[in-house]
Design goal:
The chain is an alpha+beta fold. The protein has 2 domains: 304 residues, 3-Layer(aba) Sandwich (Rossmann fold); 191 residues, Galactose-binding domain-like (Jelly Rolls), CATH 2.60.120.260. It is 26% helix and 30% strand. It contains 16 helices and 25 strands. Strand 3, helix 4 and strand 4 form a beta-alpha-beta unit. It is elongated.
Length: 559
């Protein structure tokens, strides 16, 4: 929930947003003219007056079989005739201190669309009792008990239940749907597909994002199991317990269940997502065999859906309303048909809106750029398509955070600036070439687009065990030396042996102007990842014969 965050909590809401959500809660519980009138300062009085006329809202704990009280709220239509039923939307909370209150801006749309709406905060979150389980088996068992309670209510159609959630709520929704076939459709914004891939990419811990999430969970509220996992991740003890913990919480592990049921799934993610693995979300989407939709937007975790969660318009929430209407028979959306397949924006044009039927049709064919040696008298090597180049060696000193190139200077907030057309600027001419290797293409002769998956292959010889390097692809203006990041990926080698590694970079959708240059930068430090280069040393990057170094880019002229 990234509004006015800070380095300590990039997900923090502004005081005004917190006040608005609390005022909505009060008005839902006491829909008097005075309480509803207080919402006028946010322009919400009229819609919540209609909410009060259309539905009755109440809050209560739902008591689990072990006695744990789960904080919940229910909005039920007032106009149901005897024997009449309505569809229901179940919304597990995103990860923030307000829990389920984060969804309050959506309740009128659901209500006016004829839905019963149940919001709840998962065990240990916000006002719910118990310990944080991180969408584990206990959370899913709680979800099943909550569905038992909901389907026992008069007026709720047990055959028309959907789950919607953002972030933590998205993962919970997908996992609950795998466990309980009463969930007929799912929509998840800022979703994850594989939790292990999000924690540990190419042998590299995503430590900065991990610590931000742990802080948001509040470590003292975490289960003993999760506290063990926290310690192991911090200590780089990634063992079978960590892998099992992540696997049990990964929707991709339930792919067969989704496909057997042909479960309709809508997911959203971001080109510069720093919390959950984008390739893993795309892998899950590609392998789903039921009705499916994927939205990929400019920015970072939670950026795009936030206005919609607060009651305004956003692509993720509008797509969700249409998705649920189509599969459950409500009328919360605008009457338009839902989007199937891929929908995307390209960086950094917030007004862009492209559609494709599937990922195979979306991703452009890869173009191979060979990595070469540094020509005499120059400081950077050429990255070109003509032929493989072998026999060179580049040395990169593991000297610390002085390259100036990072995945994102600020979690979540850097992506938010990208959404408004203000990407972080890197002055690549200032990068110290002893701590980074740089390859640059010739200036582009025409506008081009990058669209789809990227892959790199390099041979690396480290001087220490557990040596990390990071590859970044940038868009550089040769006239100014200013560049913006397109994509990246880390890789960690576990011993001192030379190794040829092929690895995926985060997929991208990026438009390049005529005259720009692509720059590949490899260095050995980024504060976003765990720093495994604890001893000052060097990485040698080479391109041996028959194992030439290259980067594959899905590049084509801009149509």
């Amino acid at each position: 929930m990234p509004v006015n965050g800070s380095p300590e909590n990039p997900f923090a809401l502004s005081p005004d947003d917190v006040a608005m959500l609390e005022a909505i809660r009060v008005a839902l519980l006491d829909p008097s003219p005075r309480r509803i009138g207080m919402l006028d300062q946010w322009g919400l009085a009229d819609i919540f007056e209609m909410q009060a006329e259309t539905a009755q809202y109440r809050e209560f704990p739902i008591v689990m079989s072990d006695g744990t009280r789960i904080d919940a709220g229910l909005s039920m239509p007032r106009s149901l005739a005897p024997g009449q039923t309505c569809p229901a939307i179940v919304m597990p909370a995103p990860l923030n201190d307000l829990g389920r209150l984060a969804y309050f801006g959506t309740i009128p749309r659901w209500t006016l669309g004829g839905y019963a709406v149940l919001t709840y905060s998962q065990r240990g979150l916000a006002r719910s009792e118990g310990e944080i389980q991180v969408a584990g088996p206990q959370d899913i068992a709680d979800g099943v008990e909550i569905l038992n309670w909901l389907t026992g209510l008069e007026g709720v159609d047990a055959d028309r239940i959907g789950c919607f959630g953002a972030s933590y709520g998205a993962g919970t929704s997908l996992l609950l749907a795998a466990q309980d076939p009463r969930v007929k459709v799912v929509a998840g914004t800022s979703a994850w597909g594989d939790l292990f891939a999000s924690l540990f990419e190419n042998g590299t811990r995503h430590l900065k994002a991990f610590e931000a999430l742990v802080a948001l969970f509040h470590e003292e509220r975490c289960s003993a199991e999760f506290q063990r996992i926290i310690k192991k991740v911090r200590d780089n003890a990634i063992d079978d317990e960590v892998k099992k913990f992540a696997r049990l919480r990964s929707p991709i592990a339930h792919l067969d269940t989704y496909n057997d049921r042909k479960l309709p799934v809508l997911m959203t993610t971001y080109w510069h997502e720093t919390i959950f693995s984008v390739p893993a979300v795309i892998d899950l989407f590609t392998k789903l065999q039921g009705p499916k939709s994927l939205l990929v937007q400019i920015g970072d975790h939670g950026n795009g859906e936030l206005p919609g969660l607060f009651g305004a318009i956003s692509k993720p929430t509008e797509m969700t309303y249409r998705w649920m209407d189509h599969h459950l028979g409500g009328s919360a959306g605008d009457g338009a048909k839902p989007q199937f397949g891929i929908r995307s924006e390209y960086m950094h044009n917030l007004l862009s809106d492209l559609t494709h039927p599937d990922w195979a049709g979306y991703a452009l064919p890869m173009q191979r750029f060979h990595l070469g040696a540094v020509p005499a008298g120059q400081q950077d090597a050429l990255m070109a398509q003509d032929r493989p180049q072998t026999g060179w060696t580049r040395s990169v000193q593991a000297a610390g955070p002085d390259t100036g190139v990072v995945v994102a200077p600020k979690l979540v907030q850097t992506g938010l600036m990208e959404r408004v057309g203000l990407p972080h600027v890197y002055k690549t001419a200032d990068i110290k070439r002893d701590v980074a290797a740089v390859w640059t293409t010739a200036p582009l002769e025409q506008p081009m687009r990058i669209q789809g998956d990227l892959e790199a292959k390099v041979t690396v010889r480290p001087q220490t065990n557990n040596a990390t390097f990071i590859a970044y692809l940038l868009d550089c203006d040769p006239a100014t030396g200013r560049a913006a990041i397109i994509t990246h990926a880390p890789y960690t080698l576990t011993d001192q042996q030379a190794a040829t590694v092929t690895f995926r970079l985060q997929p991208a959708h990026y438009v390049l102007a005529k005259g720009r240059q692509l720059q590949l930068i490899i260095d050995s430090y980024d504060p976003f990842f765990a720093d495994d280069n604890t001893i000052p040393s060097a990485l040698e990057i080479t391109s041996p014969k028959d194992n030439e170094s290259y980067i594959d880019i899905p590049l084509a002229p801009l149509a």
